[in-house]
TrEMBL record:
Species whose genome carries this gene: Sphaerosporella brunnea
The entry's keywords: RNA-binding
Name this polypeptide is given: RRM domain-containing protein
InterPro entries according to UniProt: Nucleotide-bd_a/b_plait_sf, RBD_domain_sf, RRM_dom
Boundaries of every RRM domain copy: 108-186
GO molecular function term, any single one: RNA binding
Region of interest: Disordered: 22-57
Gene3D superfamilies named among the record's database cross-references: 3.30.70.330
Length: 279
């Protein structure tokens, strides 16, 4: 007596490797693939993806070293992404941030007043522990300073600290200035790149680099200087100039100290000047 054998579904045969993708693909039976960032295709009906590339790793207004990418035609559900030229795979690195967080640097800036005279950057930075800092600028003639944080939530935390903790430096009570100054020494600042001149910043500018310097070789040399793997937001090389953006001021200062004493880079540091990559 012959027993009729039940045929296996084609999907099961594909999972076991007994049938090729071409057979099922033509019938529309393959599981739907998740779209990748490098696919220039619509992620949803009527929406399109903006693919981050190395060529887009430039400074945008309020986006220091960041590339914006929007999901599927819904700009309310945006995610901030950063991609550096040294990330050879081209995949963006997501940064956890609230979707409604203001990105313009003026929202991340806190002005401090009542500072003691002749205060140094290292002395002031010890009191700023709420999060990574983009730029610190001391205005000595006014006994003031402004701090630009990387994240808006950290600027809110520092503002709350100044209001509730009765912070004192050398006996001087420091408070948050109620006036959001738009001019420093008569010059209006627009971006962290502009205000980082003569300030402590997480941006380091290099000029006069040796011929053939690439983002990968520069990152390798700087990592070897510290002796540990560092996290950079962006490394950009243009001709003989470079812009290095660390994830915090602390990393940038530590790196700067070693660059100044390095025989290969000691004559290239252009830390307090205008960005040489700004074309």
């Amino acid at each position: 007596m012959e027993v009729e054998k039940e045929e296996e579904p084609e999907g099961k045969l594909w999972e076991r490797g007994l049938i090729g993708e071409g057979v099922l693909g033509g019938k529309g039976l393959l599981p739907k693939k998740e779209p990748r960032w490098e696919d220039e295709q619509s992620l949803s009906p009527g929406g399109s993806a903006e693919v981050p590339t190395n060529q887009k790793s430039r400074w945008f207004e309020g986006e220091a070293g960041a590339v914006k990418a929007y999901r599927a035609g819904n700009k309310e559900k945006c995610e901030r992404m950063v991609v550096g030229p040294f990330r050879m795979s081209g995949f963006p690195r997501k940064l956890a941030t609230p979707k409604d967080e203001p990105r313009h640097f003026s929202n991340r800036t806190i002005f401090i007043q009542g500072l003691p005279p002749n205060i140094s950057y290292s002395e002031l930075s010890r009191y700023i522990k709420t999060g990574p800092v983009d730029t610190i600028r001391i205005i000595e003639e006014e006994n003031m300073a402004f701090v630009v944080f990387v994240w808006y939530k950290d600027s809110l935390a520092f503002s709350a600290f100044l209001k509730t903790a009765q912070a004192r430096i050398r006996g001087y009570r420091i408070t948050q200035s109620p006036i959001q100054h738009k001019y420093i020494n008569g010059l209006r600042f627009r971006e962290p790149v502009d205000i980082s001149q003569r300030a402590m910043s997480r941006s380091i500018f290099l000029t006069g680099l040796p011929f053939g310097t690439t983002p990968r070789s520069l990152r390798r040399d700087m990592t070897n200087l510290i002796g540990a793997k560092l996290d950079f937001e962006m490394i950009e090389v243009q001709a003989s100039s470079a812009r290095v953006v660390a994830t915090s001021v602390d990393i940038a200062v530590s790196l700067l100290d070693r660059l100044v004493g390095h025989p290969k880079y000691k004559t290239t540091v252009n830390y307090f000047e205008r960005d040489p990559c700004d074309c």
